Structure formats: C-alpha cells, structure tokens
Amino acid sequence: MTTEGGAAPKLAEDVLTEAQTRMGKAIDALKRELSSVRTGRATPSLIENLAVEYYGTPTPLSQLATITAPEARSLTVQPWDKQAFKEIEKSIQKSDLGLNPSNDGSLIRIPIPPLSQERRREMVKMLKQKAENGKLAVRNIRRDAIEQLRSMEKSKDLSQDENRRAQDTLQKYTDQHIANIDQVSSTKETEIMQV
Known about the structure:
The protein is of the alpha+beta class. Helix content is about 55%, strand content about 15%. Strand 3 (about 65-70) and strand 4 form a beta hairpin.
C-alpha cells in the first residue's frame, strides 16, 4: 500500500495519459491510411505511400519523386532518378486504385478517371473496414490500460475506488476517440460519394 497520498492517483494518471496518447496515435494512423483511399479528386496523398521496388528495397513513392496535382482529375509524378520510371509505373498499375499512368520520358502523368457508382460503394465498404480496424485498435488500448489498472489494484498500488474512477475516465477517452473515428469516416464517405 502506498504511504504518500498522491502516489496512487499519479500512477493511474500515467496509465490514462499513456492510453490517451496511444489512442490519438491510432487515429492519426487511420487518417493517414484514409488519405490514400481514392475519392473523385486527384490528391498526391492518393499515391505517395505506394511501395516502389527501388534497387531491391520497397520505398514509398514520396521518397523517390515529386508528386503534384496540376488539375482536379490528374496527378503528375516527377522521379528524381530516371532509373526508377519503370518501377514507379509498375507500382501504380499494380495498386488497387485502378489508375493507368503514362510516361513521356521526363514525367509520369496519371489521369484520375471518375468513379462509377459501384466502385464508390466498394470504396465506402473498404473505408468502413478501415474505420472498424481503427476502433478495434482504440478498444485494445483501453483493454491494455484496464489490465494495468487492475494489476495496480491487486498489488495495492491503487484503491478499488481509484481504479473505478480511472476506468470511468478511460471509458470517456475511448468514447471520444471512437466518436472521432466515426466523424473522420463519415467525412471521407461523403467525399467518396460526391459525384
């Protein structure tokens, strides 16, 4: 049992702070993942994380070229190394984005075709799966934190009341982050379904 009055709540506070930080990172990761989900508009984030086989090493496209969106329906890729042209084109074609690049020797142009209604529905389904995975990550973080709090209570570092209060706070954090995921997902779904 702790003798200092502030030590036990401080331990619980550390667990809650760590859980909240990890939940925030899970949402950031989800946002990065969703930025690569195709909407009707051209955006460099659509392809910047595509893995390109560069001298035997999978490398993100953003580390090999400058990616721009000169128009709403096209992207251009300016590779820094002329040897990477073929591999960049191959990676773009292999991706599940349905893009067909053309190479003029100094620039790769990628027209962004409009999405069919069926393809939009597929994209929304994929989006919902990614959002569900994000929620699962947040719930797993909550579970880990609850286990830490329970073990602290068992070892008498935390009273039962302090544990209950900490778990209530943890649940509020979890609910906030799940609501944030729903909001991010809903915004992206609206973008996808816009014609």
